[in-house]
Amino acid sequence: MISVYSDEPDEIPSSTASENGHCPIIAQLSEEMIGQHCGELLLKYSQSIGHGSIFGIVVQQTQVTLTELRMTETQYQNIKAGNFTHFTIEKPSFMYTRPYNFMKKEDLEKLVEPFIMFGLEP
Fold it and tell me: For residue 38, is it within any domain?
């Protein structure tokens, strides 16, 4: 069984990887996809029951990646008000799991619990 995100999720800060001197290779999610997905999560952030987090799912063919966008209420309000810049010290974080192939029995078994949890969120 897995939790909503793995024990060692890859964390991509809200600034670009090159600004941080850290250039992770993201095999399953491109920077464009991360940006689009974070934007979609941000639109739904106020409806999340999570405390400072909203969870999501990215499906690419048979690969399923679970995601989390985490931020404080102050960060969220600053983004809504347009007062957030890339130079802001305290930034939201985006984490994701490795891709799980739902066609593989062992991966599908690990996805069942998070899918049930997603179904419980209004």
Answer: yes
